[in-house]
């Protein structure tokens, strides 16, 4: 049983036509591995972690010069990108948005060329990809990528139409960028759809650098999109001469001014305003697209040179009939949230202080109810996890580590905003009904974030439940231990033949799974509505002026504009993770 | 041989007096472990990483609810700290520095109480600490902690004297804080000196939360110190009414104004100004102290529940007679750097534009020469690492991961500043001699950072060279493989009995080690001077106005003030890491 992986390696390599040398070497390695598999009884794992981590040698060794080089390439591109994006925001004359767009066009074209090269090269060389990581690029991620990719292409088309209409007064680069970006999105979506699970074995250095280039390009595009979107949502009331105000921003409390300062520029067709509004509504999808593509290229980069089995997959299924209360309650919250969101947007747009206060009260009340219910549900979920003695997963996967890292990392944005709110509200003395609601809302958000993070981390680190399991119970300690150890080497045998840990067979009750699934679906819908509210432009942080009164407006705007995109991504990513937790519960 | 760890565990536990239940459980586990060690021939490691990482199960399992709880405690304290620190900087009335100090006093007292409790509890319970991590808390780190701790206590004494002198017009909290902080520093230095290597086995949840509390307290103190220091170094020329300007700042281009706005406040003794200057010069040491303490408490937190052997240590020694050119060249750079730094500070203080330009030219020229030599030396070092086939280390240690993380993470601050400089200089058209030198300096810094990071990462991931090795060469492949696997389980046998990998015995030449040691010592001295220049207040980023012209002053000041403390820490930490690389070369 233990010979499967090396056998597969040598078997597959024989078909290689243009790398005979490599084949011989690989064969030799495979034979050596087999010999050592027979000969060596390795050390015991559970006693000494240092010993246990001996297994990491392969990972450490993979982290060679190519790894460093690709890391530095990515780091440098990203930091240069940050500097240029900041420059284009704060400087009026020397660093225009055209400079930024030229930099981005260069990056995007380079990445597209690399992806085409990668596609061609891996198709031609037979042993380029010997293994697939079954955890990488799950269907929801790839599906989301395609969905957001389509929205991004539509956004690019709208942008092209808009800038063609203004071609007399705008730089031609502004038309060129969406054209190049649309092409890039199409090529990248295709390549990631097909190759997301690849564990590349050849040209590791070039592939590593290429993937890091892809990552950096996507993150730079993301940064630009986030900046544009934030500037569009926020209109600074203190600095009307600043060129960071938006044209067509829906909060018209200052003189609207074009990004290039040429508000007298006429559109050659009548649809400019419509298309501009439309493409700004598609920005959140483009932002998500970039993050999805970044996450997938990062996982591919982590999987370079990794050797694992491709047949290791869990046949998970999801039936809507398993759950009832969760989705229904979630849908109620979703519909209520949508209704209040629309009313909020309408009321706030009226610029009437009284209407605005009413809108804020409604918004906070809605949020408080949702957060309270979510917190209770998550707490129940955590208690069930605590009671349930199912084993945590043993294998470390880059996808899961990335998931957890992204959830905790992106939640920092939300934490930051709400801690700043709490401090501002406490410092202002919490005067008035609105501020009391705001404080309750902020504190509840922080609690809900902590609980949901704990729930997701614990949920993602559990072995999937397998229903086809034969319920044989072992009483002999030795037998259990041997089964347990066999289970650890599970990834080279088909999943359905695996024995389950003893505890699961004894303690698992259907009502726990049912409740967990209900909780997951409920939280899923709640996160969707919280995502919609933030992504489509509700900014109570600016509509309630406490934050900008206590901190200076610049600081407050920076906190909100940096924290908000992460918050939006957090809700989005939570939805995906909750779906996964729901499946494996 | 493989039984050592479990035997030790059971042996030590028998002395426990107040936890009989635990002893029985531990014994049972130890026996179980032994049985499984005999019975099980575990899977082969080099074939499948997923299998290999099965060893991580113990680590994943340790990451239980206590781990989550302590993480969330730390996260929440830190974010609240960020919000309050920001509030105290940007708000004049509602959030004063007294509020921040009260928050800090609360944190510091809580942490001190926990540390005293920890010390007493672990001393009384016999099996509280069964294992020690030999990599944690190396002597240079603990030595540095004591050194910086002493400086911090002196700083606190100076602060007390200064604020006692102004006690009629300053809040008593400002006297209370340094008193509490001095006590905290003494207790913490003692506890970390004694317990830095602990792998705590009892009360894991409480210990985890306590260590995370310690980490958060140190980081919050660090944040406050960095903010105070940055505000002191930077005087905003655009906003004279702002209370963020310093009193006694040495760049007096705006009206100096007290932090509390009471510049008419009289000191009751004559030494206020002297003490204020003195304690500001001690800030860099306090900042380093907080970071050292944070790093050590983080490593202790990572080591909670870890089981490893305490006798695993390398007898490394360092002789000054091994190296000659490196230290001499380094000392020359150090002295030249010190001389130009003093001249620079004197010239810049004169406020004469011509003198300032001369000072900048001298500063940049000095930096360019140093960076060029450092880059060449580092490149040679990297090439030697590439030629040298010595195995990378196999065992994963939290200390090394942290070291690498801190180096790469703190270098981001430097990268950020210099990429912003490059963009600003290019956007301004690189006019004049000063700007050309500035651009060269910025580009060279980025290159040097990349090279030095690569050198340090590679250097820290190498097995220490052991000179007492017997040079027996194995030709039988099977024998080598068995030896190699034995080596992996090295940490349970004394280090000096370990066989060396085959490659090392064949390819190692003394001249390589000699050159590496020369390079390390040279880089060490260069990093010391770069640390001194930044830590003691040279800010060419503000003296050359290109950056603040291109970006707005606020943005530029934010970039420099956020990036600089990380840059200072980077140079400091590089010195320590270079010393370690020098030892293991």
From TrEMBL, chains A, B:
Keywords: Cell membrane, Hydrogen ion transport, Ion channel, Ion transport, Membrane, Transmembrane, Transmembrane helix, Transport. InterPro entries: Otopetrin. It is a multi-pass membrane protein. One of its GO terms (molecular function) is proton channel activity. Its main location: membrane. The keyword Transmembrane applies. The chain crosses the membrane at residues 65-86, 98-118, 139-163, 175-193, 280-299, 320-344, 364-385, 406-427, 519-538, 550-570. GO terms for cellular component: plasma membrane. It is found in: Cell membrane. It holds the Pfam family Otopetrin. Belongs to the otopetrin family. This is Proton channel OTOP2-like.
